[in-house]
């Protein structure tokens, strides 16, 4: 079972849409997939579930059916994590629903991070809560892969979420903000890994299931680029060409790499174009864009765009599975 997180500390690049579509594609390729929405905005949950189901999950009168149910004993100080409610979405696909209330857990996680250095067992239970919740959901589903979506910031929630993962994928836009984001993200991830390794030495409960914190950089995906027959449009070309060297320098620690954009880049997992009108069409139908049918409005030129999107996500999913050491096996 591999755990893969998707993160960019700049919002609006299409990260959550990427996770949504990859989850469906992995499941169609025969992999058992658990998706954990650890973004307090819970956008991924709202993409998977219709509004009526969201009302049930986030009910103010009944019991919470989101990840907050599992966290309540820790937040209230009454005990350890509870079992997380899991939504079975489709063949091979499960969701640990997110919750807008997750933001209230930021303070507990921030405080616990410091107390781990004092060897406080409750601090380790709090810090590892995401990991243990997600792992339990994955084991119950007999998952091959767990996908984690997080918000666009460098706060305590994301720190606790990212140390859960075996590897991270960085969705990037070919623009100045993503380039600067890489420069900020690399040192932060390195610091978090190091700080967690130090804290593990102070763990007083040997039986407690804790993440190793060996977060590897799997690669990056260039999102929503513009393209003409001659290649990238000029507006994106300037920044796209900077990505390989900045990624190698600040994420991989390989300073001075002069690889250029047109060469084969082993760390560039894919380039996904802006699918424009297909995305709202898919959200309305509550299905991935590569499953859109004529009844959903995918007619005419949209038919070819749907076919192209299927191939794009299939290639990306196969590339990720290969890097994770998981063979693909189509079930349809």
Concise account of the structure shown:
This protein has a single domain (2-278), classed as P-loop containing nucleotide triphosphate hydrolases (Rossmann fold, 3-Layer(aba) Sandwich), CATH 3.40.50. The chain is built from 13 helices and ten strands. It has helices at 15-28, 43-48, 51-57, 67-76, 106-115, 121-127, 129-140, 156-162, 176-200, 234-240, 243-250, 278-285, 301-324, and strands spanning 2-6, 33-37, 87-90, 93-96, 145-149, 167-172, 216-225, 227-228, 231-232, 268-273.
**Number of domain units:** 1
H/E order of the elements?
EHEHHHEEHHHEHEHEEEHHEHH
The fourth-level CATH homologous superfamily is P-loop containing nucleotide triphosphate hydrolases
* CATH T-level fold name: Rossmann fold
Given as residue ranges, the uncertain stretches (5+ residues, pLDDT < 50) are 259-264, 328-332
Please, how many helices?
13
Strand arrangement, major sheet: 3-4-2-5-1-6-7-10
Specify the structural class.
Answer: alpha/beta
Count of individual beta strands: 10
CATH class call = Alpha Beta
| Estimated helix fraction | 40-55%
Give an account of the 3D structure.
The structure is a single chain. The protein is α/β, with parallel strands linked by helices. It has a single domain, classed as 3-Layer(aba) Sandwich (Rossmann fold). 44% of the residues lie in helices and 15% in strands. The protein contains 13 helices and 10 strands. The protein has an 8-stranded mixed β-sheet, with helices on both faces. A two-stranded antiparallel sheet has the order 8-9. Helix 1 crosses helix 13, helix 5 (106-115) packs across helix 6 and helix 9 packs parallel to helix 11 (243-250). The longest helix has 25 residues, at 176-200. The protein is globular. It starts with a strand and ends in an 8-residue tail after the last helix. The relative contact order is 0.16.
């Amino acid at each position: 079972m591999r755990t893969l997180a998707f993160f960019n500390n700049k919002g609006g690049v299409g990260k959550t849409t990427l996770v949504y579509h990859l989850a469906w594609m992995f499941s169609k390729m025969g992999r058992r997939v658990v998706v954990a929405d650890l973004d307090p905005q819970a956008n991924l949950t709202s993409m998977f579930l219709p509004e009526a189901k969201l009302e049930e999950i986030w009910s103010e009168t009944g019991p919470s059916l989101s990840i907050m149910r599992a966290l309540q004993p820790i937040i209230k100080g009454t005990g350890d994590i509870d079992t997380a409610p899991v939504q079975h979405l489709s063949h091979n696909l499960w969701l640990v629903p997110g919750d807008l209330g997750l933001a209230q857990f930021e303070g507990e996680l921030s405080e616990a991070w410091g107390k781990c250095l004092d060897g406080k067992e409750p601090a380790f239970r709090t810090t590892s809560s995401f990991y243990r919740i997600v792992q339990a959901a994955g084991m119950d589903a007999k998952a091959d892969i767990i996908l984690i979506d997080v918000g666009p910031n460098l706060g305590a929630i994301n720190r606790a979420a990212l140390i859960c993962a075996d590897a991270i994928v960085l969705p990037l836009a070919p623009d100045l903000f993503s380039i600067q984001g890489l420069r900020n993200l690399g040192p932060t991830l390195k610091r978090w890994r190091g700080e967690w390794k130090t804290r593990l030495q102070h763990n007083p409960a040997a039986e407690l299931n804790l993440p190793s914190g060996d977060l590897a950089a799997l690669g990056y995906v260039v999102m929503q680029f513009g393209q003409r027959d001659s290649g990238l449009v000029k507006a994106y070309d300037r920044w796209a060409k900077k990505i390989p060297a900045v990624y190698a320098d600040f994420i991989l620690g390989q300073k001075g790499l002069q690889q250029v954009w047109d060469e084969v880049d082993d760390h560039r997992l894919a380039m996904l174009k802006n699918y424009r009108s297909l995305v709202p069409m898919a959200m309305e139908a509550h299905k991935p864009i590569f499953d859109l049918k004529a009844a959903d409005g995918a007619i005419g030129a949209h038919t070819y765009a749907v076919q192209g999107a299927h191939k794009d996500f299939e290639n990306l999913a196969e590339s990720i599975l290969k890097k994770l050491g998981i063979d693909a096996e189509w079930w349809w």
